[in-house]
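Homework-ish question, so no full write-ups if that breaks the rules, but can someone show me the predicted structure for this set?
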Amino acid sequence: MLTPYEKILFAILAAVSLYLASVTFRRMIRTIKRGRGRLAWDGLPGRLLTGIKALAGQNNMIRNRPLVSLAHTGIAWGFILYMAVNLVDVLEGMVTGFVFLEHAAAGQAYRLLVDLMTLAALAGMAALLIRRFIVKSTDLAVAPNVKLHPRAADGIRRDSLIVGCFILGHVGFRLLGASFDIAIHGPDPWQPVAALAAGLWTGLAPSFLDFGLHASWWIAIGLVLAFLPWFPFSKHAHLFMGPFNLMTAPERTSPGTLDVLDFEDESIEQFGAGRITDLDRTHITDAFACIMCNRCQDACPAYATGKELSPAALEVNKRYHLRNHMKSLATGGEDTEPMLGYAMSESALWACTACGACTEACPVGNEPMFDILAMRRNQVLMESAFPNELKGAFTGIERNGNPWQMAGDRMEWTESLDFKVSTVAEHPDYDVLFWVGCAGAFDPGARDTARSIATVLHRAGVDFAVLGNDESCTGDLARRAGNEYLFSISAEGNIETLNAAGAGRKKIVTGCPHCLHTLGNEYGALGGRYEVMHHTQLIGELAKAGRLALPGRDGTRTTYHDPCYLGRHGGVYEAPRQALAATRPSLVEMARNRNRSFCCGAGGAQVWKEEEEGREAVSDHRFLEAWETGADTLAVGCPFCARMMNDANKRAGEPMRVRDIAEIVAESIQDEQQRERERERHDDR
Amino acid sequence: MNIIALVKQTPDTAQLSAAMDGLMLSADGGPRIVNPWDEYTLETALQAREEHGGKVTALCLGPPEAADALKTALAMGVDEAVLVSDPAMADSDSLASARILVAAIRKIGDFDLIVGGRAAIDGNTAATAVQVAALLGIPLVSYVAKLRNLDPSDRTVTAVRLLEKARETVTSRLPALITVVKEINEPRYPSLIGIRKAARADIPVWGCEDLGLDPSGVGAGASGVVWRTELPPVREAHIEMIDGGPEDAARTLVDRLMEEKVI
Ligand code: SF4
Ligand code: SF4
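A: Not a homework solution, just the prediction itself:
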């Protein structure tokens, strides 16, 4: 189709474009390589499959913002198809007389597919541009109290406009080209959209049509040549960096499992992330993969309650920092700017509840939470600069083995029970080790829960023991607060205790999702491998096996709040509901449930400090959602959720009953016993 | 500016509980911490150094395991640490301890400021630092809640003392000894880099011989005070829960407190 001169020109332009693209792409790769660790490449076929699946299935993006995601799917599929289309078009242009699968049925199908996908891509792109620039969807805005790179606000708009125009131009001119082709060569029933457009040219001179065909080809392909080197600077890079990020994601025992630090190696002088180059490579890749869609921000409890934190802004700020320094970073230049400053404010850093909602929501597999925790590590281990209240909790773990700084007896909670709870020392042949946790041992509310768990286990005839005063804080709060050193000391001590108690050969049941997560998912990397379950899982199993006589309470309406560390981080959603169902309440779900559950506000060491400045307390926000279900009982499965929800309940004038599932089950058992006694009395008479 | 921080290691009284009896707390191998008041001592010294430059030396008198307290001081950031330890020094009373500390301070050499805590939580005499100042013949400013002005060039220090019912602003010449109360600052949490540096540090231990002290002039034999550890008598406690809404509960509580003649 092209004239010889055009062919030469194209060859030159293509070479220049490819060369420039190789320069910028290499720069991006080298920048990623400034990060620590390696990208995961093991089991490549599986990883490739992950990438392809993510591309084709759009990584389940549809579950959040369905309409927008549908528009995006149109663009994405259209664009993926266009990679092949561009090759075909270049071949058709460069090889005189070549027409791809001219008369074959496959060719007809190809043309039909391209024609329709062109329409889908154009419609999708137009819809998204209208949403951003005309409707000005607030989903795409970031609150003014959140730190945003000075270039970002305008930059994102400009970038989006350029990308949008690029896609419209590229796909649109390809369509026009096809329409000129039809006007020249006659109708093609397999390209209905292009045929419709061809109607525009009826009656025009053949020379004009020929000019139109060439011009369209040049604009469609020329845009690609022009855009190629610019990819790494544009958010459009997510097209391949997104799947790449998902493909190279590290294996983790749970979505919230942090990596351990090596404190033995004296040559390591930086712990945690002070600068962006201290991040893992996968987390630098995150910034290149980010689409700036704010899905993580929508899910973030800190952002929703007006704190200075937005996980999306963090990724955007990282991206702009990298973009501005890419040349220097790629060539080994030192980055001197601390992340705490341009990436987020100090208040934002300490507002994160480590709930993992951002990671769960992100369609390209970004993990903003990991950056935040890495930055906290830097603040605690290197700078010793963190909210003062946390010091008390740290000192408590160090000296008293619990963050409350309580010097009490870890068996005191058992005193009011009408049966004896044995320690491992007294009863080494136990079947199940009940890990009570600091809350269960010291917090008045959680002690009730611990007693309920013990009562349920006792009634069901489970042979269990506790560690008593040998138990010590798992270190979860220290870890989420950035004090990895204290976590490692706590973990080592507990692993020793657990191994001495033979817990590796038994089952461990915890009364707290945070203990569950640390013992079950995080101690493994330090050599402590245990089979750990949450008390609601065990209770569910017991109920199913008919080992609990549960009459249930008719007429109660209950809603269940999924704890972050049981749900998103532990993947346990149904067991607590089953345990609860055994007491036969009518269960109503909150709008945000299971993997979309909204944090109670306690996690990430928040409960040990004052909540950061914001519009409202995270706990009040969540409590309102529970209240709005119309339920009378709010069932929880975590001592910290219980505390947050109880406090919020009190502030709201106690419209609900907040109870741990174990308490609800234990109450139910007591009811049954009561009835039994009454029946006996009745029979005696 | 050369600053000496007096640091003592004490039993961790916060660990006293039903699970740990009082004798175990003070026995060998019981839990030990930096005297909580001395955390403020160290913070004061470190802040002064950060402002005026110079060097902070932490000085501790105690058994060999008291070196741990100095490790904490090093982890927090002091430049040097010296442990004064000798079996002959065991059971020294505050005056004998002060004599030993003064000998050590003289051996350390030049100083502009000595900082101590208001008291140690074990003996609770609040006397040692006073006696050190007296023996050195330098001014003492006790119960300092705020360092208003520390001026090494003018060689003065202006401090706000926290008294029972008042605050008193005092200016003294340097060198001087100040003792601090917890209102003065918020002690820092050691960074990991600090902890690592402390773990590697070699802490010199000075005995009677190093200090040119006659063993018979220190320790129990040279002390007027005899130490004996005894548990306090067990107190009968009675817990009463008051039910009702906040207002009713408060009213009942007030009535009960008046009944018991607490208020
Ligand atoms: S972990 Fe939770 S609180 Fe932290 S940034 Fe992510 S969504 Fe927000
Ligand atoms: S991190 Fe993920 S969810 Fe958040 S804005 Fe970027 S792409 Fe969207």
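Now go work out the reasoning yourself. Hint: Chain B touches chain A at residues 12, 14-20, 31, 33, 186, 188-196 (CB under 8 Å).
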